[in-house]
């Protein structure tokens, strides 16, 4: 949710500033409450699992657990204030232990009995050690591991999925490098009708040919696939798997979010998916593809006018001329976009390309782009984006202070809290320190915004390293 713009009618600047500070304080307090609540829910689910009261037997697969994290939670002020009673309700009331006697006060009024943190930790430790057969380490530092590396990791993860009640798993995320492979992918079929969100990060190259074994999981709405090394070209080395993977994803009619990272065949896999009339994506992210070989993918993007968030990152080498026009033409049709992030792929964008995008994508709220030789010519069109809150220009740019200030003057309340970042300013036409300070002051006072300004590396500098420009 966007920050609410400060009151501008019927009050002084001081009052407006105070209201804004109060709003930020309230938002911060709400965020802290949510964080503590999620923290508490994690521990509550884990303990209930050990008591046999959850659908998923989480505790069976824990190898190392430290109770220091739980101790910090029990002693947290927010937890004790409003979350404690919910945490210890029902089955967990059995492990709630109070101090032997209430704390005495100088007055005759006695404070309610305080929880005995050490006794509670002992009780939790006893429950967990009794019901976690794989537990190898239990101590008191804030450390929690759900381990999936090693020779047996694939079999263990597959067994975990098989132990769950069929069609009960709705979301699965593997965060770090793991050795899951074919057995895990096949075991997911036991949850093919319930699984909605699947996020597999850092998949081993040797596991990539097994991707199509998840073909039964057709109820997905959100999918993330990330290869660990960006070395497997399924289209040219495992074409049968490539085709089966496409078939799988085309059958996921409810897909709304797709993220592919470091997958060499990503654009080729996604092209037929984008052309499916019944698939309407709201978010698409692709990182590590070759734009100059992805003309069909770029054309197909125009078929997904439901997109609200699009991230493209790929090496722009040889991506010039008509290839850029194909991409820009498609992007201009995505008029519902609110978040557009172009990294590397837009390295050869010129003023005209950025102006075209600004004239057509009027709903943008966040926009990252690179480019070459970008000038003040972009500001009149970019100023028409009345909901833009963040603009990051990671391009060799030659802006003047007057040009930027004129842009800021055209912004309205919909641009409140604007973050304007010029990340590769041309050193030969850079703003002076005084000009940078002036832009910061104007943006901050007018829109409570922020201005970042960084010079591009100077290739003539003695300590310049060509790798810095990558």
Instruction: Give the amount of beta strand, in percent.
Output: 15-25%
* Biggest pleated-sheet summary: 11 strands, parallel
Order of helices and strands: HEHHHEEHEHEEHHEHEHEHEHEHEHEHE
Are there runs of 5+ residues with pLDDT below 50, and where? 1-15, 102-111, 140-148
Q: Helical amount among residues, as a percent range?
A: 25-40%
What integer value in Å does the Rg equal?
27 Å
Number of strands: 14
Shape: globular
Strand order in the sheet with the most strands: 4-5-6-7-8-9-10-11-12-13-14
Structural class: alpha/beta
What is this entry, summarized?
The protein is α/β, with parallel strands linked by helices and 470 residues long. It has helices spanning 13-50, 68-75, 77-87, 117-131, 153-163, 182-187, 234-237, 239-250, 266-274, 295-300, 322-331, 351-360, 379-382, 401-409, 433-447, and strands spanning 64-66, 137-139, 144-145, 171-174, 197-203, 222-227, 257-261, 283-289, 309-314, 339-343, 366-375, 390-398, 419-425, 450-455.
Could you characterize what this model shows?
- With 470 residues, this protein is an alpha/beta fold.
- It contains 15 helices and 14 strands.
- Strands 4-5-6-7-8-9-10-11-12-13-14 form an eleven-stranded parallel β-sheet. It has a three-stranded mixed β-sheet with strand order 2-1-3.
- Helix 1 (13-50) packs across helix 3 and helix 8 (239-250) packs parallel to helix 9.
- The protein is globular.
């Amino acid at each position: 949710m966007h920050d609410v713009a400060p009151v501008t009618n019927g009050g002084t600047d001081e009052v407006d500033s105070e209201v804004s500070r109060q709003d930020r304080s309230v938002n911060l307090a709400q965020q802290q409450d949510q964080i503590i609540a999620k923290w508490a829910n994690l521990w509550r689910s884990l303990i209930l699992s050990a008591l046999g009261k959850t659908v998923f037997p989480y505790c069976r697969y824990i190898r190392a657990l430290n109770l220091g994290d739980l101790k910090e939670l029990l002693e947290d002020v927010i937890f004790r204030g409003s979350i404690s009673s919910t945490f210890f309700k029902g089955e967990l009331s059995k492990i709630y232990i109070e101090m032997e006697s209430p704390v005495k006060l100088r007055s005759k009024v006695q404070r309610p009995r305080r929880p005995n943190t050490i006794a509670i930790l002992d009780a939790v430790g006893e429950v967990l050690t009794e019901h976690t057969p794989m537990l190898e380490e239990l101590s008191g530092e804030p450390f929690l591991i759900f381990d999936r590396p090693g020779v047996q990791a694939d079999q263990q993860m597959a067994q975990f999925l098989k132990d769950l009640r069929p069609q009960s798993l709705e979301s699965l995320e593997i965060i770090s490098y793991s050795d899951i492979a074919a057995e895990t992918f096949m075991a997911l079929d036991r949850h093919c009708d319930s699984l909605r969100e699947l996020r597999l990060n850092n998949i081993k190259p040797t596991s990539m040919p097994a991707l199509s074994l998840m073909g039964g999981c057709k109820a997905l709405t959100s999918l993330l696939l990330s290869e660990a090394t960006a070395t497997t070209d399924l289209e040219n080395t495992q074409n049968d798997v490539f085709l089966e993977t496409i078939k799988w994803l085309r059958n996921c009619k409810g897909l709304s979010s797709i993220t592919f990272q470091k997958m060499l065949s990503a654009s080729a896999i996604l092209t037929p998916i984008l052309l499916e009339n019944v698939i309407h994506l709201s978010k698409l992210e692709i990182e590590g593809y070759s734009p100059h070989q992805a003309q069909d993918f770029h054309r197909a993007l125009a078929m997904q006018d439901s997109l609200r968030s699009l991230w493209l990152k790929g090496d722009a080498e040889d991506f010039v001329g008509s290839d850029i026009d194909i991409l820009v033409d498609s992007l201009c049709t995505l008029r519902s976009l609110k978040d557009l992030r172009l990294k590397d792929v837009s390295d050869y964008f010129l003023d005209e390309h950025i102006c075209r995008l600004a004239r057509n994508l009027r709903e943008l709220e966040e926009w990252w782009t690179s480019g070459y030789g970008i000038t003040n010519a972009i500001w009149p069109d970019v100023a028409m984006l009345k909901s833009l809150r963040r603009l990051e220009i990671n391009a060799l740019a030659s802006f003047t202070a007057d040009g930027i200030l004129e842009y800021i003057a055209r912004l309205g309340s919909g641009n409140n809290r604007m973050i304007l970042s010029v990340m590769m300013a041309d050193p030969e036409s850079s703003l002076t320190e005084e000009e940078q300070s002036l832009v910061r002051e104007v943006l901050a006072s007018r829109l409570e915004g922020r201005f970042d300004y960084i010079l591009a590396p100077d290739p003539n500098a003695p300590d310049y390293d060509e790798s810095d420009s990558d």
